[in-house]
Automatic annotation (TrEMBL):
It is an enzyme of class 2 (transferase). The keyword Transferase applies. This is 2-C-methyl-D-erythritol 4-phosphate cytidylyltransferase. It comes from Clostridium punense. Belongs to the IspD/TarI cytidylyltransferase family. IspD subfamily. Its EC number is 2.7.7.60. The record marks 156, 213 as: Positions MEP for the nucleophilic attack. Gene3D superfamilies: Spore Coat Polysaccharide Biosynthesis Protein SpsA, Chain A. PANTHER family: 2-C-METHYL-D-ERYTHRITOL 4-PHOSPHATE CYTIDYLYLTRANSFERASE, CHLOROPLASTIC, RIBITOL-5-PHOSPHATE CYTIDYLYLTRANSFERASE. InterPro entries: IspD, IspD/TarI, IspD/TarI_cytidylyltransf_bact, Nucleotide-diphossugar_trans. It catalyses: 2-C-methyl-D-erythritol 4-phosphate + CTP + H(+) = 4-CDP-2-C-methyl-D-erythritol + diphosphate. Catalyzes the formation of 4-diphosphocytidyl-2-C-methyl-D-erythritol from CTP and 2-C-methyl-D-erythritol 4-phosphate (MEP).
Length: 235
C-alpha cells in the first residue's frame, strides 16, 4: 500500500500574504488542491493523508468535496515543527499501515510534481526502503560560516538540491522518528536526516526544476506563469 502524506501544516507568510502559501488561490483553485490532484490521479497511490492546521481543516474538507479528491482518507493536525507534523501523520497511521507500506511525504507548496517523480519514488522505495528526490546543483555552492567571507567551495558534482517527496517504508520512518525523539532531536527539517542517524542508506531519485517549492512572491509569479502557459498549450 502506498500513502501520500501531504504536509500543509505550515503557517509561513514569507510572500506577504495573510493566507498561508499552500492555501493561496491559483486561477480559482487553492494551491494545495493542485498538489493533492497530482497524487489523487496517480494509480499507484492508494490513499492520501493531509497534515493541516486545525483552523484550515474545514476549508480543506470543502475543497476535497468540491474538486472530487477521492483518495484523501485522513486530515491530521499539524504540529509546531515539520518534524512534529510528520510524526503526527505517522502515529495516525499506526494500526493501518504494515511495516512495508510506503509513505510518500511531500510539501503541499510543491504543486508541479510530475507523475514520473511519484512513480520513481515508489519504485525506488520498494527496492531501497528510503529515497530522497534531488536535482543537481547548477551553481557553485559557497560555504560561509559568518556570512561575510568564504570558508569553502565544495565540489559541485558532489552537491544536490533536495526536494520532496521523501519516501520511506513505514516501519523505517516510524523507527527514525521515535529514535530522534529519544535522542532529543525535535526540530529536524528533513526526514532523511533522521534515517541517516540510524546508519541507513538513503538513495536518490532524480527530481525536476519544475518541482520547486513556492516560498516567495517571485515563486508564486513563476507558478502562475507556468500554469497559464500550460493551459494555453492545451487549448
Amino acid at each position: 500500500m502506498n500513502i501520500a502524506v501531504i504536509l500543509a501544516g505550515g503557517s509561513g507568510t514569507r510572500m506577504g500574504s495573510e493566507v498561508p502559501k499552500q492555501f493561496i488561490d491559483i486561477y480559482g483553485k487553492p494551491l494545495i488542491v493542485h498538489t493533492i490532484e497530482a497524487f489523487d490521479i496517480n494509480p499507484k497511490i492508494d490513499y492520501i493523508e493531509v497534515i493541516c492546521k486545525e483552523d484550515w481543516q474545514e476549508d480543506l474538507m470543502i475543497w476535497i468535496r468540491k474538486y472530487g479528491l477521492t483518495k484523501v482518507k485522513w486530515i491530521v493536525d499539524g504540529g509546531e515543527t515539520r518534524q512534529e507534523s510528520v510524526y503526527n501523520g505517522i502515529k495516525h497511521l499506526k494500526g493501518f499501515c504494515s511495516e512495508d507500506d510506503i509513505l510518500v511525504i511531500h510539501d503541499a507548496a510543491r504543486p508541479l510534481i510530475s507523475q514520473r517523480i511519484i512513480d520513481e519514488n515508489i519504485a525506488s522505495t520498494e527496492d531501497f526502503h528510503a529515497v530522497d528526490t534531488v536535482i543537481e546543483s547548477a551553481d557553485t555552492i559557497i560555504k560561509s560560516i559568518d556570512g561575510e567571507v568564504i570558508d569553502a567551495v565544495p565540489l559541485r558534482k558532489e552537491l544536490y538540491l533536495g526536494q520532496t517527496p521523501q519516501s520511506f517504508k513505514y516501519g523505517l520512518i516510524k523507527e527514525a522518528h521515535e529514535e530522534a525523539i529519544k535522542q532529543g532531536v525535535l526540530s529536524a527539517t528533513d526526514d532523511c536526516q533522521l534515517v541517516l542517524k540510524l546508519n541507513k542508506d538513503v538513495h536518490l531519485v532524480k527530481g525536476d526544476k519544475l518541482n520547486f517549492k513556492v516560498t516567495t512572491f517571485e515563486d508564486l509569479l513563476l507558478l502562475k506563469s507556468i500554469i497559464k502557459l500550460g493551459k494555453l498549450e492545451v487549448n
